[in-house]
Amino acid sequence: MTLPPDLPAAGEQAPTLARPRRRRLVLVVVLAVVLVLVAATVLVVYLDQRPRLERQANIDAVAVAFDDCDLGRTGATVDRDNGSIDFDAVGTGAGPTWDDVECVGDALGMPEEYLTQLQGPGDGFASEELRWDVYLALRLTGDGDTHVSIYHDWQAASYD
């Protein structure tokens, strides 16, 4: 416990004590700085996460289409985190069929003419991208097989 200072002798000035007003001012400044730092942190986290939040429903739609079309039985694989389905070789007798590709395409709103293009004959080794809405179908042909993948398109124009 601190004792109050002695009373000044005659003719001396009384010692000045820290004023409560200054303490309050320092407290207000510290609180303001903390609030600004918290707000800045929240803004940075929001700006970092916003693109993912905007796209999450479309990414989830790919996984839902995979499940709804029961593709787990066909050997097709799904990346649920990034929204892609790899059908591998389609229509070879073992594995996914064109009906499976059509099922996913219908679930994701793929134009019908794109399915026709995907099924078309390929000359040698070739690749083709078909984009619609926020999705992308990739067709790779070679060795007599057609490999198809459907992706969530991270660079879709609707996200700009």
List the helices and strands and how they pair.
Layout: H1 20-68, E1 77-79, E2 84-89, H2 98-107, H3 112-119, E3 126-132, E4 135-142, E5 145-152
Antiparallel strand pairs: 1-2, 2-5, 3-4, 4-5
Written overview of the protein:
By secondary structure, this protein is of the alpha+beta class. The protein has a domain of 104 residues. 42% of the residues lie in helices and 20% in strands. The protein has a five-stranded antiparallel beta sheet, covered by helices on one side. A hairpin with a 2-residue loop joins β3 and β4. The chain is rod-shaped, with a radius of gyration of 33 Å. The N and C termini lie far apart (65 Å). 19% of the residues are buried. The mean pLDDT is 85.
Structural class: alpha+beta
Silhouette: rod-shaped
User: Helix share of residues?
Assistant: 40-55%
Note the run of SSEs as H and E: HEEHHEEE
How would you write the strand order of the largest sheet?
1-2-5-4-3
Count the E strands. Answer: 5
Tally of alpha and pi helices: 3
Q: Mind summarizing the main beta sheet?
A: 5 strands, antiparallel
% residues in beta strands = 15-25%
Task: Name the descriptors.
160 residues, five-stranded antiparallel beta sheet
Describe this structure in a few short sentences.
This protein has three helices and five strands; from the N terminus they run αββααβββ. It has 160 residues and is α+β, with helices and mostly antiparallel strands.
